Structures are given as structure tokens and as C-alpha cells.
Amino acid sequence: MFSHFERKEDLLLDRLPDAVDIVRAAVRERAADTSPVEALHQVALALAAERHPLSGLIGDVEPFSRTLIWAVESVQRRLAGGDLADIAAMHRERLNEAFDAVAHGLSR
User: Fold this and answer.
1) Total domains in the fold of the chain
2) Does a structural domain hold residue 15?
3) Is the pLDDT reported for residue 67 higher than 60?
4) Are 56 and 74 in contact (CB under 8 A)?
5) Among 1, 61, 72, 102, which is least packed, fewest CB within 10 Å?
6) What is the C-alpha separation between 8 and 64, in angstroms, rounded?
7) % helix / strand / coil in the chain, to the nearest 5?
């Protein structure tokens, strides 16, 4: 294990630097008329669309997902054998709702 990872935590957190870089770039490189929330919303949708490993929508996400105590509904449905296209559509809808709530407040 330690020939591949410096620490045992890296087994689960090896994508954390990628996530930080993606978030940082989305905010720093956004257009002048784009809010930070909208920039993050767009990058989250793009990650979901390309089924990036950080989206949780890749085909081989099960081993990693089973180790996380904070599994979201998308991962739970995938582990239950749900159709990936349907899960991806629901995932995008949830992303849209979440970012709408952040951008416009939770009272909507």
C-alpha cells in the first residue's frame, strides 16, 4: 500500500487535490459577469456530464463509494443497480436545486 500512497488516508482522499484545483480554477477563471456560485454550478454540471470520477457517476464507483459514510442519493441509487442515465438526470436536477438554493437562498 505505502509504495502507492504516502498515507493510508490517501486511499480515500487521493482526488482531493484535483477537487481543490477544479474549484479554485472555476472561481478564479470565471467570466466577470459570472458569480462564484454560478461558476461552481457550471463546473459541477460539467463534471457530471463527462462522468468525471469526482461526480460519482463513473461505472466503477462502487468500491470507493461503499467506504464513504456520506454517500449521496446518486451513489445509493447506483449501488442499488439503478439505470445510470436516470441517475445522471436526477443528479443534474439535484445539482441545479442545490446551486439554486445557494444562489437565491433556501426560502425558495
Assistant:
1) 1
2) yes
3) no
4) yes
5) 1
6) 14
7) 60, 0, 40
